[in-house]
Amino acid sequence: MNQDSDSSDQPTGQDPLLLLKTLQLLWTKQEQRKQLKEEVRRGFAGLEDPLAGLLAMLENSSDWKGKGHSLGYYITTELQLWIKEHPAVPQSGIQLKKLQARVLRILSQCPANLLDPLISIYQLHTADRNYLLEHVSHLYLKGDYKEAAILSIKLKLQPDQDVEKMCIPLLLQDKVNVVEDYVGEYPELQSKLLQILDSWCEPGVNIRDITRPYQGLSRYKPEKFNHRTLSKLVFRLLDRFHVDPALCPNVVNQRHLRTLNYLFYKRFVEKTMTEENWADHVQSTAGDSRCLQGHLVQLLLRHCPGRAARWARHWGLPMDVLPPGLAEELPELHTQQRVEEATKADNYEDSKKKDCYQLPISRENIHFLQTWEETLQCWEKVLQPGQVVGVDMEWKPSFGMVGKPRVALLQMAVKDEVFLLDLPRLLEQAELEGEKEKEKLPQFIQMLYSDAAITKLGYGMSGDLSSLAATCSALKDIEKQLHGVVDLLTVDKQLQKGCGEWRKDGRKVDGLSPEHSHEERGVRQREKGLSLLVHHVLGKPLDKTEQLSNWEKRPLREEQILYAASDAYCLLEIYERLCRDPESFGLSSDLMESLVGKRSIKPRAKKQLNKQEALSPSGQQCQGSQMETSRAPAPVSPREFSVVCDNMLQGLGRYLRCLGVDVRMLDNEDDHRKAAEIARQEGRVILTSGLPYQTLQSQVGEGRCFSVNCSEKAKEQALQVLKHFNVQVSLSDIFSRCQRRDQLQ
């Protein structure tokens, strides 16, 4: 390189390889990293051409080729920052093209973290597009399919490439994530890829014919490339890219065929689906497809020819699909079948009453709500401090089709009553009535789930809340606002862990329900989830024959209404039973400890603190409002006592402030965990209630978190806090921090 004759702190024209050796020496010494940064900066300033110098250093070292943080990566990112501070440095014209040709050879070997900095430094987005495509093609021909695809993504070359050619090798190497990224920003490529994959699922297409040219492929995984895995991939891509499933008729048809097989099994083998539900789903699944209709008729011919003939006539199928003479026998078969079904239905109802959980409330106490005015009676009863509410949701089964399920029915059960909210109808009405009305229903649901003074019971609530968010966009963040939520699935897991070993036939060695022996219960293997928990705790399982109903169809049948009410109301009975006698089910004597995974079946030693035990600011041991020891903690004045109130205790906070206590209160939108941050930073005691107590007490020092009874008024809550921490209030303290005397009244 030419040496510059101008004098400076660092001579220009420095050899980049000498600079590299200096940097390599400093890189090995952790304590000299600061000097390394300074040396890099001086080195850039001393190079005649920093861009060419970086390439020389990368070409003459290899540490950057591995994964992770390397000296090569460090030098590259430092140069990227240095260029921003020295905008005159970047090259242009013929010299830049030469540098781009050199850097492309490096890009084919470098890890992902180096791609973006090098592409930016050498302005590869301005390079000749044909030259870039030729380079990627060279990588592809060498068998570097992943590297070719990633470089194409970074340089945005996909529109000029053959999507099928680029993606097939990646799919065969199980690099699906790279394929998804490759088409991710191009809707037209997404559609083209999906059509290609769907064409491979067409009946008669042999997948081996497609994969044969790639059998010598490295990391080839042919077992990952079959009709079933392709079908799953297509549905995942349809969902991710929000593409109309009609674009992929072959995989959709295959999914419908499997659905018909499943429905047939549920109705005629397992016998856990009613005739009405089965017929409804069969009709919607088969639709107008002669192929699907014929498939169902052939299934029915093996078990119930009369039904096969009826469905063939219903769909107008040619009678030659039926065995000879069957069409003529149809009226007689139809009458015989109706008599058999009626007899079976009567027998089933009697069996259900005997063997399954029965709703303990009258039908008139189940309310189906379709207007905002009707829902007001629900809000008044549900939004009561101290209320316990069983919450469940129903939606139409998707049978594996695209999209998240949308809630069709929201059930809320309180003592002696159940409210069934027709969610689609309520949301539709609100949409028509304007912006203000549209917010009412989501606001109520948010109030319910965020109020720690109301206990919400559910079973597997995460899935319910995800579907709720998909149904109403205003509730998309509802999972971040949960307070006072009890997921009985958590209790169920604790219960099953702590109560003996399961036999292979689905029975426990020792009984979970203290009232029934395992012989009496006869737990069948097919029972699972909430039904099994109901069986364990209440003695009888839920009747699940309506589970796969079409919950979007109106009006709901009476059986659906009773099923939906039972699913919500049984949560109340389970919770009440477990709270009354948790130890008989192998749970901790404090059910809340079971909910957070603190199983403690053995009695605690006397020296240990119980759930509500705490240390006062003076360091004395307390339990609730009573002292564990006979000696009370040293008295403190309100001015020496500082607290942070959770957002459900704002009334208590205002009351304590009027008594002279130093109070900070969380805002309504604050997460309750913010209380722990404030408590740690400012040395405050946290005042909270319900489930947040379980989380917050572990985030602060012992005795620095106190649980308040939310069902009491602010005055009683304040007295409880003052007594617990032995805060002595004098007349001079009252209103010392509070300007409005009416808050005390």
UniProtKB/TrEMBL annotation:
Q: Name one GO molecular function term.
A: nucleic acid binding
A GO BP term here is: nucleobase-containing compound metabolic process
Q: Which UniProt keywords apply?
A: Exonuclease, Hydrolase, Nuclease
Instruction: List, alphabetically, the Pfam families matched.
Output: DNA_pol_A_exo1 (PF01612), Mut7-C (PF01927)
- Answer yes or no on keyword Hydrolase: yes
Extent of the signal sequence: none
SUPFAM superfamilies the record matches: Ribonuclease H-like (SSF53098)
- InterPro entries for the chain: 3'-5'_exonuclease_dom (IPR002562), Exonuclease_MUT-7-like (IPR052408), Mut-7_DEDDy_dom (IPR037432), Mut7-C_RNAse_dom (IPR002782), RNaseH-like_sf (IPR012337), RNaseH_sf (IPR036397)
Region (Disordered) spans which residues?
506-526, 606-633
What highest taxon heads this organism's lineage? Answer: Eukaryota
Ranges for domain 3'-5' exonuclease: 366-583
Q: Where is the composition biased (Polar residues)?
A: 611-629
PANTHER family xref list: 3'-5' EXONUCLEASE DOMAIN-CONTAINING PROTEIN, EXONUCLEASE MUT-7 HOMOLOG
Question: What protein am I looking at?
Answer: Exonuclease mut-7 homolog isoform X5
